[in-house]
Amino acid sequence: MGNLYLGFDAGTQSVKVSVYDEKLECLTSQSLPTSFRYPNPGWVEMDLDDFLGVTLKCIKRCAEDLKEIGRDPKDIVSIMGDGVICGIAGVNAEGKAITPYINYLDSRTQDDVEYINKKDLSIWGKETGNPVASCMFPAMFARWLLKHNTKFQEQGVKFVHNCPYILMNLAGLKGKDAFIDWGAMSGWGLGYKVMEKEWSDEQLAILGIDKRYMPRILKPWDIVGGLTKEIAEYTGLREGTKICAGAGDTMQSMIGCGNFEPGKGVDVAGTCAMFCVSTTGIVPELSKKGNNLIFNSGSLPNTYFYWGFIRTGGLALRWFKDSVCHKADDALYYTDLSARAEKVPAGSNGVLFLPYLTGGQDETQKKSSCFLGLTLDDDQAIMWRSVLESIGYDYMEITDIYRKAGVDLNRITVTEGGSRDSLWNQIKSDMLDSEVVRYKNKGGAVVTNCLFAAYAVGDFKDIIPNLRKVLVVDKEYAPRKEMTSLYRRLHSFQKDLIKNDMPEAFKRLWEIKKIVKEG
């Protein structure tokens, strides 16, 4: 009946696994949530074996679904995944995680980031396109683990990202076999040469990271091994099923929504809300200090992009639903919230939400999250709309930088989970003064992974032409001039409030948290 391909997206909040056929039609999809730990203020930890376990459960469920529709799970010929580009853990010689998994939500390296940036070195921008260090960079996590994690000091062999860890275990690989693809490599932020797709000896020496800890660099579609007998028996898949090297989630999301040419804008509406623009390489105007933009390599050859971000953009939505509304088990409550918030006028009745649940994305201020301007007239719907608008305000700053550099942003594509929310899409269109486009394909990164999996085993001869077949516009949102004008006025007040009025309050709030934590 034809070959099948399995793709997974190991995201921050959940792991999604899907199976597609040769026509790139989805036959089944399963998803399960991940878990977090918050051991100290500003610290966010996860577990690589939790990612692995959740992925295996989803694969097994997908195999069971295939049997129910009369398909044989053993027809799956290749597996390809993607994962978080800004997050690492350490593994031992057996390839097993021996440290917590630390990602972009964590701020523990902030003091070290300030130390690195005081050196004011030009090599960072020259070789990576990123002029300064950030506390979300894996390069900084590696420095922290080398200094503070005794287990890694004694047993550590390699640093790995979450997707390669899953793929390594599917194939039964050891620590010495650890790998990373050439796109996700640029998620390290520092320590590599982005155009040459290789680690930088000079940068690693400055960072104090021994090159022996760095994983080998592969192409996303390279075959790293075959599915082990043990996992094949557990999941119902065929032993020896080809395992690909994988890719970064942002890179695959961009490809999955048609962004594989320079000059296009994409809103990756995931846990970390990311606003991306594709380029032909490093753009000096965008790589300036103070822009707070990150530069990365794409999954495909000669593709590059910049992205601005709100670290807890999508996570703020989940936090509000789960922790404020107490609807953790009701995924449809997002729809209910937006239906009610649609009746709330733009500006959320004067209520502002600051989405800095794990601190700000700059290192000059210790930001924290809060609602401002609440009165007895305000309710859940107003608060929800203010959460959505808060991410839009930060996006306005990012798009202003892009437009100043000459990037045309009249049309923006949205992808990942948040792209299904029509209210949020319309708010973004109004706030950014751009047409927003959503594609019918809901797979995003996952369908791209399956396409790569088919390409890896030779079933597809090329990637882009086959991708174009599934890129069908679902809905378009046009900016409303009166709303755009209103949001621009509100943004000037919001920006002034955060930059001039709130810094002292942020400092005192952090001091209060420290006092409470220490007792």
TrEMBL record:
It comes from the Bacteria. Residues 4-256 form the Carbohydrate kinase FGGY N-terminal domain. Transmembrane segments: none annotated. GO terms for molecular function: kinase activity. Residues 268-456 form the Carbohydrate kinase FGGY C-terminal domain. InterPro entries: ATPase_NBD, Carb_kinase_FGGY, FGGY_C, FGGY_Carb_Kinase, FGGY_N. Coiled coil: none annotated. This is Carbohydrate kinase. The lineage of its organism: Bacteria, Pseudomonadati, Pseudomonadota, Betaproteobacteria, Burkholderiales.
